[in-house]
Amino acid sequence: MCAYKKSKSNFIWKFAKALVDPKLVRIVIIINLYTFIPGLILSILIANFFGPQGYNIWDNFISDLGSITHTPAPFIFDFIIIFGAILT
C-alpha cells in the first residue's frame, strides 16, 4: 500500500473518530437546543400575534411556521431548522 492511501485512510479514521467524540456530541446537542427552543417559541409568538390567519398550536402543524400563509416571518423558523440540520 502506498503512503498516500495510508495517510488518507488515517485522516478519515481520525476525522470519523473526532465526529463521534462524546464531548463534541454533547456540545452540538446543547447548541441545537439553545437555538431551536427559543427560535421555535419566537416563531410561534410572531405567528400567533402578527400572522394573517393567526397560528394556534392545537389547530396548525409545526411545519406551518415555515409558510408565509401563517406567519409574516417564516425565515426565522426556516433558519433554525436549517441550522439544526447542519449541526446534526
Low-confidence stretches: none
Based on secondary structure, the structural category is mainly alpha
For the terminal residues, how far apart are their CA atoms?
A: 34 Å
Number of strands: 0
Query: Averaged pLDDT, please?
Result: 85
Can you tell me the overall shape?
elongated
**In what range is the share of β-strand residues?**
under 5%
Number of helices: 3
Radius of gyration: 20 Å
What can be said about this structure in brief?
With 88 residues, this protein is mainly alpha-helical. Helices cover 68% and strands 0% of the residues.
Q: Secondary-structure blueprint of this entry?
A:
Layout: H1 3-19, H2 22-50, H3 74-87
Helix pairs in contact: 2-3
Q: What does this protein look like?
A:
The protein is mainly alpha-helical. It has one domain. It is 68% helix and 0% strand. It contains 3 helices and no strands. The chain has helices at residues 3-19, 22-50, 74-87. The protein is elongated. The relative contact order is 0.12. The model has no long low-confidence stretch (mean pLDDT 85).
